[in-house]
Structure formats: structure tokens, C-alpha cells
Design brief:
By secondary structure, the protein is an alpha+beta fold. It has 3 domains: 115 residues, Serine Threonine Protein Phosphatase 5, Tetratricopeptide repeat (Alpha Horseshoe), CATH 1.25.40.370; 292 residues, Methylamine Dehydrogenase, Chain H, CATH 2.130.10.10; 101 residues, TolB, C-terminal domain (Neuraminidase, 6 Propeller). The chain has 9 helices and 39 strands. The strands form 10 sheets. A 4-stranded antiparallel sheet has the order 1-39-38-37.
Length: 562
């Protein structure tokens, strides 16, 4: 029994805020001991959300607290592991031990290894214990994952004051998030079809969303209320941008037009006509004088328009596939375009000349691009599940960011240049630390040869009903088939059954492995990976699960407490 159990209400409250009291009293050693005590971490998480724990580590890491560099590294690693798992732990607190082991087993800190030994003894419920460090470790570029949408996340934007993230989704909603804590604040609902794009006004007070329902909507970000619906397009609206003065918005549509709107009145000002196919992207130059638009398969080019005269100034030609996204450097001199031809091109805005092409290092089409606030780097997002960072002076790829388990659809820079936010078909938003040190631990990205495994005992079989997200279990002797395993929230990719027919494990595109008791049909334990699982099997001992995920990691998990 934990020393934190069976406390009075007064002691419970004191215990929850014990790190604050220790920091205030200058009891640094006691504070560090507490924050490396698994029992305390588990106790606090059982009563509060993970952000409260994350903030406890900030107390110990503040500049006025004098601790050794080794202890700082230790506390940062634990804090980072909790932050990387926060979206999981806030939903399923029983995964704490498994998440810490999966992210920190590699760490050589004696304090961390002692904490992990404590975690291995946790026995409150059955759980799946990682035998290897197969989850993304702390200390790398990936900082936090946000979950909450029920369908693909199509677009993301950040407010100028760096306080909020706004995400758009095929679930027809926009979610507003606290950038610092990762908490979902509220949801904007009103669109009748999936939301394709989102932009924020320069004062950070309003959000403009675009949708396949042929409309745009202007929202008050402070109240969450809809201000106007902008009606006029004859087909789905694919992209939207706001002028630097915040007075107008420019929308791009599959109806082959761009429309310019007065944000004060919600009225259409004028329409730009000239594209021969649906308009897929739009950007406004930092000086507010020009609009740059791109079209899809027929033209494969960009157009530059004078916003005041409404005249087409330039056509930028060179891509061999549809142009998906546009960004302009802060100095107003260059345009960066992203295309289905797997390339980025950099153009001179004054002449329309192509300056150079960023080589097709992506293996699938590029869907989004952003430029850092200093104009020195570009970030591309691709259907190949990765983001790449490029030097805009040399055209050289600097690094690749792995973490999404499906196509990356949108990318936005935080104004301070330190953070990057991405959105994906995997239904997540990820926050990346662009100033992080190179990862000290590189998880091997093996090409797994595992395919869906179907284990058959002498009495039972397991098959997949992927469309209905339900594994089916039946009896071979009677031929009866019945649905009993309900619980996955996305398509099932694999099922395996133990040799004795007592347990089953299911793998799913919701990135969760579930262990089932086949007699009762209940879930005994769950384990979240960083990407959706595509295969699973039991080892011969019937107590070890082997699973592979879309990020090319292989997980070895021992069943505890069963």
C-alpha cells in the first residue's frame, strides 16, 4: 500500500501541493526525491490531470533553485515523458507505468531507474509492461500531442500572442487549445460539412474558417460565438487568408475563384477570376498589396494578383503537379510553394522567376508549407507522414520530423519561432520544439515484416470486422459466431489469441492495443503507442505480446496482473 493512501482530506490537499511547499521552503533534495517517486506521481495523477504534474517539475527547474545538472536532466526527462503521454494519461491513468517504462527505459539516471523499478511493481490493475524503450523518448523535437477530434485534422493556426491553437477537422468542428498546457478549451460548431482551412486575424480576436459546405464563418475567439457566415462561393472553400491590417479575408474555392470579404460587415467585396481549375491555396503578402493563389491539376501554377487593382500580375510556372500550399517570406521577397509533385519551389516575388527547387526528398506529395519568422527556413508537411525543415538560403534539408502515423495535412509556425504545430489525418495535432537538442536516443526505425496475425486455438478463432471496428470471436465446434469485443474507436488491424484460448489482443488504427478476457468479453488492459498498430501476436509463453506500429517500432509487452 502506498504511503499516500488512506489520508484525511486535509492531508490529501497538502500532499497534492507538496512540491510547491517544498520549493517554497527551499527543501531542494526533498523536492527532487518526491518528483522521482513513482508512488507520488501515480497518486497525484490519480486525482488530477497530468498538467498539474508537469508544472511540479517546473518548480524544481526554475533558475533560483540550485540543483546539479544531472538532477536537472533527470527531472526534465521525467517531465518530458509525462508531457509526451499526457493525452493518453488524462484519458487512461492505468497506463502511467507502461508509458514511463516505454519512454524512459533507455535512461541511465540512477533516480530514473529506481523510479522505473517502482513502476514495475505496480499492481492495482492488469497492465502491459514494455520490455524495451519502444515509445518516443523525451528530449527530442516532439513536445506534445493533442487529441480530441473524431476525424482527420485538416488545418491548424496559432494566434499572434502564442496563447491558442485552432484546429479544423473533417468532423465539421474547430477546436481551440491552450498552447502552453495543451488543454482543449472549447469547440466551434456550425459548419455542415468538413472544415478545410482556418486563419486568425492579426489582433488574435477572431477566427475565420472555410468549409466544404461552400461557406466561411467568422468567430469571436474570446466568446466562441459565430459572428458571420460568409456566403457566395458555388463549391467547397479550400483555403483562406487574412490581410495584415485585419480588415479583409481572401478565400479560395473549388469553384475556380477567389473572393475578398469585408470582415467588419461580412460582405463580399469582389471576386478574382482567372484560374481554369479549382483554387487550392491562397496567401497574402506581408505588405498587404498582393494575393498569391494556386490551382489544382489543370494549371499546376501560381498567380500573383494586385489586391487594390484586382489585376493579375504574374503567373509562376514550373510545378508538374497540383500546388497544395503557399507561404511568403517575411521580407516580402520570396514565395515558397508546395506541390503534389513532391517538391518545394522558391520564387522571386518581384519577377516571378524560379530561384531554386528543394529536392524531392519527400516520398509522397507535399500538402503544406510554412516559413519561420526570420525567413531563413521553411517547413514542409507531406502525405509521407513526415515534416521536413529546409534552409531557404542553401536549399538543403536540415532535418526530418517523425511522429505522425498518417499524412500531415497542415503546419503553422508559432510567432516566437521556437515551436511548430502540425495537423494530421491520424486525428492528432502535434507541437514540436524546433530549438531542441538532437535526440540523444534514436529509436531504430526498423522495417517490420509482421503482417496481421490470426491465432487459432482448438476451440476458438478470431477474425476481423474492420468496418465495424469489432473483433469477432466464435466457437469452432458449434460454428456459432458472435460479437463480444467492443471498445476500439477505429478500424481493427489485427487480432491474436493465446494458445489456451483465454486471452486475445487487438490492434487498431486508434493507436491502442487492447488485452481481452475472452470468457467475459471485457478489456483487461490497454497500451497506447505513438502510431497506429498494424500487427500483433503472442509469444509462445502466452504472456508476452509482440506488436508493430506504423512508425516502424516493434513493441514487446509483458502481461502483468493476470
Amino acid at each position: 500500500m502506498s504511503e499516500f493512501d488512506n489520508r484525511s482530506p486535509e492531508d490529501v490537499e497538502y500532499g497534492l501541493y507538496l512540491p510547491y511547499h517544498l520549493a517554497r521552503a527551499g527543501m531542494v533534495d526533498d523536492l527532487c526525491d518526491l518528483l522521482t517517486d513513482f508512488e507520488f506521481i501515480e497518486y497525484k495523477l490519480s486525482l488530477l490531470l497530468s498538467q498539474s504534474l508537469i508544472e511540479d517539475y517546473d518548480l524544481a527547474l526554475q533558475s533560483e533553485i540550485q540543483i546539479s545538472e544531472d538532477k536537472k536532466d533527470c527531472l526534465k526527462a521525467i517531465q518530458g515523458a509525462i508531457r509526451l503521454s499526457a493525452h493518453i494519461l488524462d484519458r487512461d491513468k492505468t497506463q502511467l507505468a507502461g508509458q514511463l517504462l516505454g519512454r524512459l527505459l533507455f535512461h541511465d539516471s540512477p533516480e530514473i531507474q529506481a523510479m522505473l523499478e517502482q513502476a514495475k511493481q505496480w499492481d492495482s490493475t492488469p497492465w502491459l509492461r514494455p520490455l524495451t524503450a519502444s515509445l518516443t523518448p523525451p528530449g527530442g523535437s516532439l513536445f506534445r500531442t493533442l487529441t480530441g477530434h473524431t476525424a482527420e485534422v485538416t488545418a491548424v493556426a496559432v494566434t499572434p500572442d502564442e496563447r491558442f491553437i485552432i484546429s479544423a477537422s473533417q468532423d465539421k468542428t474547430l477546436n481551440v487549445w491552450n498552447l502552453e498546457t495543451g488543454s482543449q478549451l472549447f469547440t466551434l460548431r456550425s459548419h455542415q460539412d468538413w472544415v478545410t482551412a482556418v486563419a486568425v486575424t492579426p489582433d488574435g480576436q477572431c477566427v475565420i474558417s472555410a468549409s466544404q459546405d461552400k461557406t466561411l464563418k467568422l468567430w469571436n475567439l474570446m466568446t466562441g460565438r459565430e459572428i458571420y457566415t460568409l456566403v457566395g462561393h458555388q463549391d467547397g472553400v479550400i483555403a483562406v487568408a487574412v490581410t495584415p491590417n485585419g480588415r479583409s479575408a481572401v478565400s479560395a474555392s473549388q469553384d475556380k475563384t477567389l473572393k475578398v470579404w469585408d470582415l467588419k460587415t461580412g460582405l463580399e467585396l469582389f471576386t478574382l477570376v482567372g484560374h481554369q481549375d479549382g483554387v487550392t491555396a491562397v496567401a497574402v503578402t506581408p505588405d498587404g498589396q498582393c494575393v498569391i493563389s494556386a490551382s489544382s491539376s489543370l494549371e499546376q501554377n501560381l498567380k500573383v494578383w494586385n489586391l487594390e487593382s484586382r489585376v493579375e500580375l504574374l503567373v509562376l510556372q514550373g510545378h508538374t503537379g497540383p500546388v497544395r500550399a503557399i507561404a511568403v517570406t517575411p521580407d516580402n521577397k520570396r514565395v515558397v510553394s508546395a506541390s503534389a509533385d513532391k517538391t518545394l519551389k522558391v520564387w522571386d516575388l518581384s519577377s516571378g522567376a524560379e530561384l531554386f527547387t528543394l529536392l524531392n526528398n519527400h516520398t509522397r506529395e507535399i500538402y503544406a508549407v510554412a516559413v519561420t519568422p526570420d525567413g531563413r527556413q521553411a517547413v514542409s508537411a507531406s502525405l509521407d507522414h513526415t515534416l521536413k525543415i529546409w534552409n531557404l538560403e542553401s536549399g538543403v534539408e536540415l532535418t526530418t520530423l517523425h511522429g505522425h502515423s498518417a499524412a500531415v495535412t497542415s503546419v503553422a509556425m508559432v510567432p516566437n519561432g521556437k515551436w511548430l504545430v502540425s495537423a494530421s489525418v491520424d486525428k492528432t495535432i502535434k507541437i514540436w520544439d524546433l530549438k531542441s537538442k538532437p535526440e540523444q536516443i534514436s529509436l531504430s526505425r526498423r522495417k517490420n515484416q509482421m503482417t496481421s496475425v490470426l491465432e487459432i486455438s482448438d476451440k476458438q478463432f478470431a477474425v476481423l470486422d474492420s468496418q465495424n471496428k469489432i473483433p469477432k470471436v466464435g466457437d469452432l465446434t458449434s460454428g456459432a459466431k458472435f460479437d463480444i469485443l467492443h471498445g476500439q474507436t477505429d478500424s481493427i488491424t489485427a487480432v491474436a489469441v493465446t494458445p489456451d484460448g483465454r486471452l486475445a489482443v487487438s490492434a487498431s488504427q486508434d493507436a491502442i492495443l487492447k488485452l481481452w478476457d475472452l470468457e467475459s468479453g471485457i478489456v483487461l488492459a490497454s497500451f497506447n503507442g505513438d502510431g497506429w498498430f498494424r500487427a500483433c501476436a503472442f509469444a509462445q509463453d502466452g504472456m508476452t505480446i509482440i506488436a508493430s506500429d506504423k512508425l516502424e517500432q516493434t513493441h514487446f509487452l509483458h502481461i502483468e496482473g493476470v
